[in-house]
Amino acid sequence: MDNTGDVDHGPLDLISLMKGEPRPEVLRDLLRDVIDPEIGINIVDLGLVYDVNLSGDGVAVIRMTLTTPGCPLGGYITDSINDTLASVPGVTDVDVRIVWDPPWEPDAMMSDWAKDQLGWKR
């Protein structure tokens, strides 16, 4: 098992990718490759990604938060998201929107897999 939580998820929808019509769920799955370097867990399983959409003109809009407003690696994570999604067929641009509402609550927002990896007590 690695830090992407792949064991808990089905196969990636390669057909939609090959057609250049990635569904938001596919983009969200791809974001599992973006690892929070301080925690070592991907941003999806950490619960940092709130919403993923693809506009009609191909802009991937990611609404997310960070673990804290003062997170020093916010720029790194944003760059990693751009690097991950920019080459996806059908994605013309990536728009990452950092929001603080709702605030990140690890107990409520992290996946069970992430909690297990971090030894989170439930």
Short description:
The protein has 122 residues and is α+β, with helices and mostly antiparallel strands. 29% of the residues lie in helices and 18% in strands.
CATH homologous superfamily (4th level) name: Fe-S cluster assembly (FSCA)
Helix-strand category: alpha+beta
pLDDT below 50 for ≥5 consecutive residues: which ranges? Answer: none
Compute the number of structural domains.
Answer: 1
What is the number of helical segments per DSSP (H or I, 4+ residues)? Answer: 5
Computed CA radius of gyration, to the nearest angstrom: 14 Å
Distance between the termini: 21 Å
CATH architecture: 2-Layer Sandwich
Annotated CATH topology: GMP Synthetase, Chain A, domain 3
- How would you state the average pLDDT, rounded? 89
Query: How many strand units?
Result: 5
Strand content: 15-25%
Protein traits:
alpha+beta; GMP Synthetase, Chain A, domain 3; 18% strand; 5 strands; 122 residues; 5 helices; three-stranded mixed sheet
Question: How would you describe the overall organization of this protein?
Answer:
With 122 residues, the protein is of the alpha+beta class. It has a single domain, classed as GMP Synthetase, Chain A, domain 3. The protein has 5 helices and 5 strands, in the order ααββββαβαα. The model has no long low-confidence stretch (mean pLDDT 89).
